[in-house]
Amino acid sequence: MTGNADEGFRALRMVKDDGGIRAEFQTLPLSALPDADTLVQVQYSSLNYKDGLAVSGKPGVLRGYPMTPGIDLVGRVMSCESGQWQPGDAVILTGWGIGERTDGGYAQRARVRSEWLVPLPAGTTPQWAMSVGTAGFTAMLAVMALEDHGVTPDGGEVLVTGAVGGVGSTAVALLAAAGFTVTASTGRPAEADYLRSLGAAQIIGREDLPALKRPLEKERWAGVIDSVGGATLAGALASTRTHGAVAACGLAGGSDLPTSVFPFILRSVTLAGIDSVTCPMPRRRAAWERLARDLPAARLEEVTQIHPLTEVPALAQQILAGQVRGRVVIELE
Ligand code: NDP
């Protein structure tokens, strides 16, 4: 299957019927794509935690069926009715509801809105863009949020939780490249060398994070990038130094937040929320430009594995089980 218009294109579809929710590989005509102004030939997508939930049929991500999952993509514009893009332009799309509310990146073609697209930064490749993907873009937004709230490289240790995951790995690499002293927390101590190679100065086990016994713990972190949530995020808040900041990105460990107001009212700690899906366009472009400039490409390549679309259902199980290291790029061509 080449994906030519007259032959149809390959897609991974989530379908729902009396037998339940399941993933199916289908060949579809262009007329099956949603209504939007820009047709994109998808070259790569990636695997994020949210994709793992969607492809495993877990509730809460896909808003309708049938649906093509895949919350990000990179590709070439084939046609654009708004005139904002020319055929052949290389574009990136993360978030805005693709792979959730409208068809996403796990297909050789996507029809999307022209205002959602970001140009592929000069000097980068499509594969690079999806090595970064939603997870890496989110990590960049988290670093920018810490900086906006006054966290600087000379301010002390910055904690990254869920460090071996996609958001975590990229956050460690970005912070280290920017000169921060990074402490990486992981439930996989065997990956300590991997984390050091990304630039972590210190590795601590999940269970060695300061436990949340009291509303305020000893001050330790100048900043925190958290992709775990739950008691981990609560413990991080309680251990953040006065005027420090915590960027909350995820819920790999739980969506609750058993905290108190004390870190906020006694230490001026800032809890910055990160939502990559609705990130406004100027910040989006700035984040991608900075990723292209600051994230060492060789380091990113080391943390990336490339798989065909057919392997996505198995990979989805692995990411939910916390077994994926770094970033997974999905090849569509
Ligand atoms: P990954 O699965 O790649 O990484 C998550 C990491 O969290 C794992 O590698 C593991 O790290 C840690 N972890 C997993 N389960 C647990 C647990 N039960 N307790 C403690 N730690 C755990 O996912 P992503 O990096 O793609 O995404 C991470 C989180 O960020 C997800 O919740 C995702 O939904 C969210 N996210 C949010 C975005 C936003 O816009 N806000 C965008 C992208 C992702 P280790 O093995 O090192 O302990």
TrEMBL record:
Q: Which GO terms describe its molecular function?
A: oxidoreductase activity
Keywords carried by this UniProt record: Oxidoreductase
Q: What is its EC number?
A: 1.-.-.-
**Is Oxidoreductase tagged as a keyword?**
yes
Q: Where is the Enoyl reductase (ER) domain?
A: 20-330
What is the enzyme's class at the highest EC level? oxidoreductase
Superkingdom per UniProt: Bacteria
What is this protein called in UniProt? MDR family oxidoreductase
Task: Please name the taxonomic classification of the source.
Answer: Bacteria, Thermotogati, Deinococcota, Deinococci, Deinococcales
